[in-house]
Amino acid sequence: MERFKYWLNATQSFHPQWRPLVTLSYAQSLDGCLAVRRGQPTMLSGPASTCLTHMLRASHETILVGIGTVLVDNPQLNNRLAPGPSPQPIILDTYLRTPLTSRLMQRNDRLPWIFTGRDIDANRREAYEGKGATIFICTEDRKGYLNLSVIMRCLSKVGVRSIMVEGGARVISSFLRHRLVDRAVVTLTPIWLAGLPVLERSRNHIVFPSGYPRLAKPFYRQVGAELVACGLVEES
Ligand SMILES: NC(=O)c1ccc[n+]([C@@H]2O[C@H](COP(=O)([O-])OP(=O)(O)OC[C@H]3O[C@@H](n4cnc5c(N)ncnc54)[C@H](OP(=O)(O)O)[C@@H]3O)[C@@H](O)[C@H]2O)c1
Fold first, then answer.
1. Which of 28, 44, 84, 115 has its CA 20 to 30 A from that of 56?
2. How far apart are the C-alpha atoms of 109 and 111, rounded to whole Å?
3. Which residue range is the domain that position 177 belongs to?
4. Does the CB atom of residue 65 touch ligand 1 within 6 A?
5. Closest ligand 1 atom, residue 26 Cα
6. 29 CB less than 6 Å from ligand 1?
7. How far is CA 103 from the centre of its chain?
8. Residue ranges of the chain with pLDDT lower than 70?
9. What is the pLDDT of residue 179?
């Protein structure tokens, strides 16, 4: 863990001035899958790499997931295993589908910040705010997703300096496609799944039109039964 802590501290300033530092972190199978299939919760981390994930959570101010992950995994996104605080949870949820009964909406400490589209119902918005969540209205991009550049600027404006992006597949793909990832910590689990690929492939557009993101200055460590790859993300 000391090597990871050292690297996290040493790379804390590797982000553009206009937005927070973005660290991508997820677990994948040997054949590059996040889950058995979209919609099925799949535990891919063992106890030791789960501890690493919580240590990462403790070292970021915020943690971000898509609504797909909220609906399937019902995560808490807090830090329960490492010294240090829990990050502020953030959900990308255009149509405000986060269940009011979800674990994130039941937390006693930090209720989520939810980025939504412009057409949400005022009464529904009030229901979330009444429970303590914060709603941010956001414009959409050409794909119909929430505009990540707008979200980054908004988070920067409210003083956020670091974001840990935990998934799922669509969110990971969007962040990488928009070149918004500074660091990555990827856990490789020794299993084949033939399931949901980490990256979305689309027939209608090229995922990486101008060069491929790659890990620069990577280092690799075995953590329990898994292999963890860490590095700065650069374009090749
Ligand atoms: N192995 C791991 O480490 C790991 C980690 C996390 C999740 N998972 C798995 O991943 C799966 C969920 O992945 P997923 O791809 O279905 O869902 P997701 O990436 O969690 O969420 C995607 C949804 O977020 C919303 N969204 C809004 N703005 C977006 C943007 N700019 N870019 C991308 N999404 C945006 C969209 O829904 P709206 O249009 O409704 O807003 C979109 O469909 C689950 O099976 C979960 O178990 C695995």
1. 115
2. 7
3. 2-235
4. yes
5. 3
6. no
7. 17
8. 203-205
9. 95
Which tens digits make up the pLDDT trace of 139-191? 999 889 999 999 999 999 999 999 999 999 999 999 999 999 999 999 999 99
Q: Indicate whether residue 185 lines ligand 1 (CB < 6 A).
A: no
Beta strand 226-235 pairing with 213-223? antiparallel
Tokens representing 77 are: 């996104």
Distance 69 CA to ligand 1 centre (A): 5
pLDDT of residue 116: 98
- Closest alpha carbon to 94 in 38, 39, 170, 157: 170
Show the beta-strand stretches assigned E in 67-148. Answer: 88-92, 113-116, 134-137
- Say how many Å lie between the CA of residue 2 and the centre of ligand 1: 31
**pTM score:** 0.97
Measure the CA–CA gap between 64 and 113, rounded to whole angstroms. 9
Say if residue 200 is exposed, middle or buried (CB neighbours under 10 Å; 0-12, 13-18, 19+): middle
Burial class (CB in 10 A: 0-12, 13-18, 19+), 203: exposed
Sign of the CA dihedral with 129 first, then 100, 141, and 25 last: positive
Å from CA of 144 to ligand 1 middle: 14
Domain count, the chain: 1
CATH number for position 63: 3.40.430.10
Cross-strand bridge partners of residue 92: 66, 115
Strand partners, 41: none
Which residue among 52, 69, 135, 152 has the greatest number of ligand 1 atoms within 8 angstroms of its CB, and so is best to mutate? 69
Q: Is the dihedral of CA 197, 80, 93, 164 positive or negative?
A: negative
